[in-house]
C-alpha cells in the first residue's frame, strides 16, 4: 500500500484525514452501533412503544426457549436453509460448468448475461408472482397438472400444511441464480490450462473431470456461496411474510418472522430484540466456522 | 475436444433452464396485456386484443364490452402506472440520493484510509469492516426504535440515512483497494504543487475512478431499490411509498384485486432497473462478482 511520504504527513494533512473519515464514523455510530447496543440492552427489558422499558433480566430469553414457535420455527429454518444450500450449490455450479464448456465466447457471454437479467425484477414482485400466479388454486402449477391429467394432485400449495414449506422452498425454481453462476464461472475460469491438459492426459473427462478436478478447484467459491446462503437463510423471512405469514398454523413460521410479529404486530420490542440476539449468536457461530474459508476466497474476487 | 453434438446438447439444456426461469415472467407480461375477463375465461392463450389487431377478428368478450383492442392492451399499464408513478419517483429519488452520498462519503473515507497513515487509521478501517458482520435481523427492531426516537418516520431520510450508513461500508472496501493501487507519484507531485486534500481528491482521485464509481453506484442502487422490509416498516404515508413496499401495499388494496393491473405493475416495477442494467451491464457484472465479498 502506497503511503504519503514524510513531507505529506504534516499536521494539516493529518487533521484533514480525520475530517474525511468523520461522516463515515458518525453515520456508523448512529445507525449501526447504536441499534446494535440497543439490541442487547433492550433484550433485557419488557418494552412497549410509548411506555418506559421495564428491566426483566433474561426472562425474554427464557420465555423464547419455551415459545410455542421455537422448535417448529428453528426446524423450518433449518430445512429451508439446508434446501437453499443444496440447490444453490448444485444448479448454478452445473450451469456455470455448462456455460464455460461452450466454444464460442459470444455464446458464453450471452448466457452469463441472460441468467443475470432476473435480478432487475424486485424481490417483492417475484414473491407476489409466485404467490398469485404460480401457487394459486387457479395458478400455473395446478393448471399444468390439470393439463397433463394429474388433476387429482391439484390443491392449494401454500395452504396445505403438508406442502406449504416445500412450496416456499421451491420459489425461484429452477434455481439458476445469475449471481451464483457468475461467481462459479469466475472460479472455473481461473483453473489453469495446464490442469485441464494434465486431466485430459490422465483420461479424466466429462462428469469425472467435473467432480474430481473442477469442484475441488472452485472450493473457495462453494464455501463463499454456502456462507452467504446460510447467513441469508438464518435471518431471512421476507418471502414467508409475503407468501404465508407463517401459516398454516406455524407450519412455515421461522424465527425471523416471529421476531417481526413480536416487534411490529404485538408491540413486544424487548422480546423481539432477544430473538434478534439469539439469531445473531447463531449467525456469528456459523460465520466463525466459515471465516477461515472466506479468507481463502479473497484473492479470487479482488 | 469440442464436439458439435455435445455443444448442441449444452445449448439445449441451458435454453430449457432459461425458459423455466423466465416462464412465470412470460405469463406476467402476457397477462398484463389481457383483460381480467379474458384471464378468468382462459388461463393460457395470447392476448385477444393482439389477435384482433392482426386478424381483425374480435373476441366474444371484446364484442360484449365494445372496447377497442389498443385500449385492452394498455389498460392494465394505465391503471398500474397511476399508482406506481409516485412510488417509482420516490424510489428514484431515494436510490439516486443514496448512491451519490455513498460515493461521496465512501470515497472520501477510502481516500484518507488508503493514502495516509494517521493515528488510529488501522483501527478505524477494522471498525468499519466489522460492521459487515452485523446481521440485519439483530438491528431491525432497535433501528426502528431509533428512527422513531429521532422523528424520522415517514420522511425520506428514514430510508436515505440508514441506507447510506450501511451502503458506504462496501463502497469503502471497493474504493480503498482501488485507491491503494494508484501510483504515489501522482499524489506526491500534486502535494509539491501545494494541492490540499480537496483538490487532490477532485482533480486526481475522482477522474481516475470513474469505472469503480459506476460499480459502487450500480450495486448500491440495486440494493436500495430492492429493499422491501425497511420501507415497509418505516413508511406508512402513501405519498412517500417506494416501489418494493408499494407493490405489497398495492396488492392488498382495491387495485390489487385486478389481475391485469397487478401483472402490468410487476412489469412497470422492473423497467427502471432493466434500463439501468441495459446501460450499465459491465458495472453490473463486475459489481456482482465483487459484491460476493460482502459476506
Structure overview:
The complex is a heterodimer of chains A (302) and B (295). Helix content of chain A is 68%, strand content 1%. Chain A is an all-alpha fold and 302 residues long. In chain A, a hairpin with a 7-residue loop joins β1 and β2 (54-55). In chain A, α3 (70-100) runs antiparallel to α11 (219-235) and α8 packs antiparallel against α11. Chain A is globular. Chain B is built from 15 helices and no strands. Chain B has 2 domains: 4-65, no CATH class; 75-291, MetI-like (MetI-like fold, Orthogonal Bundle). Chain B starts with a helix and ends with a helix. The mean pLDDT of chain B is 90. In chain B, 78% of the residues lie in helices and 0% in strands. Chain B is mainly alpha-helical and 295 residues long. Chain B has helices at residues 4-32, 36-41, 48-55, 60-65, 69-115, 121-130, 136-149, 157-180, 184-192, 197-208, 210-226, 229-234, 243-251, 259-279, 281-291. Chains A and B meet through α1, α3, α4, α5 and α8 of A and α1, α5, α6, α7 and α8 of B.
Query: Order of strands across the widest beta sheet of chain A?
Result: 1-2
What is the count of helical runs of chain B? 15
Helix content of chain B: over 70%
**CATH level-four homologous superfamily name of the largest domain in chain B:** MetI-like
Strand content of chain A: under 5%
Overall strand count of chain B: 0
- Oligomer description: heterodimer
Q: How many whole angstroms does the radius of gyration of chain B measure?
A: 25 Å
Helix/strand/pairing category of chain A: mainly alpha
> Could you estimate the helical fraction of the residues of chain A in percent?
55-70%
The CATH topology of chain A is given as MetI-like fold
User: What is the global morphology of chain A?
Assistant: globular
- Average predicted confidence as pLDDT of chain A: 88
Radius of gyration of chain A, in Å, reads 25 Å
Q: Give me the CATH architecture of the largest domain in chain B, please.
A: Orthogonal Bundle
Main beta sheet of chain B:
none
Secondary structure tally, helices of chain A: 15
N-end to C-end Cα span of chain A: 15 Å
User: Biggest protein-protein interface?
Assistant: A-B, 101 and 105 residues
Number of strands of chain A: 2
